[in-house]
Amino acid sequence: MRVMELEKNVYHGALSFFHRDVLNLYAKMKRKHAMNDVTDLLHYCEVAKNENPKFHYAYTIDEERRLENIFLSSAPCFDWYKKYGNAVVFYITYRVNAYDMPFSIFVGVNNHGRTILFGCALLRNETSKTF
């Protein structure tokens, strides 16, 4: 609130809304975006694929039409994999995101000894079929 007061150059308490109003708006926006986040992600992937054919993504949907798994690899990541993909490290976090889904990354090392990202995935579960 103080930042907004300073931005508008008004004294403390002179804004036409309260701190609670800001929190309510934030919660409303968060709920709105939470309902469309998978749709937005898939739309982003389609646009990125149309703009650059080297962008790769794949996903599966379960019986209830919910996102089950998704894999993403941007164009530079794809090129790096082709060049440095002879050794790949697969790392998985354990359900530390808002969706309670394991998040995995595929990384490697370039010729300068720096870690590079090849791709990432969100997984519904950790079964052998998923991997």
Automatic annotation (TrEMBL):
Pfam families for the chain: HTH_FAR1, MULE
Domain of life: Eukaryota
Boundaries of every MULE transposase domain copy: 92-131
Domain FAR1-related sequence 11-like HTH-like positions: 1-31
Protein's name in the database: Uncharacterized protein
Organism phylogeny: Eukaryota, Viridiplantae, Streptophyta, Embryophyta, Tracheophyta
